[in-house]
Write a structure and sequence with these properties.
By secondary structure, this protein is an alpha/beta fold. Helix content is 44%, strand content 15%. Strands 2-1-3-4-5 form a five-stranded parallel β-sheet, with helices on both faces. α7 crosses α8. The radius of gyration is 19 Å and the shape is globular.
Amino acid sequence: MKITVINGTEKHGVTYKLKEAFLNYFNDSEITEYYLPKDCPSFCVGCTSCFVNGETTCKDFSYINKIEKSLLEADLIVMTSPAYVMHTTGAMKAMLDHFGYRWMPHRPAPEMFGKRAVVITQCLGSGAKQAANDIKHSLSWWGISKIGIFSASLMSDIIWDKLSQKKRNQLIKKINKLAHKFAKINYKKKAHTKFVTKIKFKLSRFIQKKVYKSGVASLDCKYWQEHGWLNKKRPWKHYKKENV
């Protein structure tokens, strides 16, 4: 089993401790980790070259390509981030922006429709849920249906060793419950694609069919056509056939 972890900060704080506790349930797995901003140091500048000319033309392709390769190979994706001003870290947002071309209306990777993901967030006060939703939003538009969420609010301190033993025990108990749930999954079987994901795909397909009929030369439309998605093929059905 392969796990890819994207850490929204390089700090080894509370979020890091919770992530490590989660991964303890997957000791036999091959785990690849990335730490932001170190492993994706540049902001997306909104040049739209990835949409128009292809992702290989992105100025940060060397970073993005390495991360994407790991994501596509992973059986489980784990994304972590403390809440900064009630949202995910700027480094995590910058990385997610680079993957705009993988959103469903553009060129979603068919592999994503069979994957599972976990989002781990925490904060001092409020904002953990918002930070988790920031990440979940992108994951869902990549095509991932099975997304586990862990969010926690700290009211005393943001340093693990300064938290009360009672609070630490509560956090570990909660993260262990989520880890146990995901550790029981048979990852040889791809995740079920939920109805809401299929609706997003259907809306995206409607857009691409209009572009196709208009005759506009579009990299995205060509991608959909090559995958047969403008006809009857669907990315989630591809995985069902593999598992027969």
